[in-house]
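Question (not urgent): is this output format expected?
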Amino acid sequence: MIAIAWQLRQGTESAAEVDIDVHHGDVAQAAFYDDPRVLTISLHQHPAMLFSCTGLPAGTGGPGAEGSAVNVALPGRVRDTSWLRAFHAIIPSLPWQFRQHALVSEHGCDTQRLAA
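Got this back:
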């Protein structure tokens, strides 16, 4: 989030953040929810199953920034093939379609626990 804010202050036209840890990327999404220059993508465990209780697919961006937030809420203990299918369906194509000039990836330290 700080890297994106810095990039925007430096004149970058658009940016994307990809967050793939188990929790929703709620801080970045909240910071840029109304900013059409920033695309936030979060692949996370369904919010009904895990703190922070945010990140439903219906959260797609604020007024004037609709479509700038993408939330992929996955079931707990999702299988490797399903997680990879979700990842490859969205990343990297969506950030490139958004035509971002900067890309930040957030991996966190609490990854999904995938079922074998």
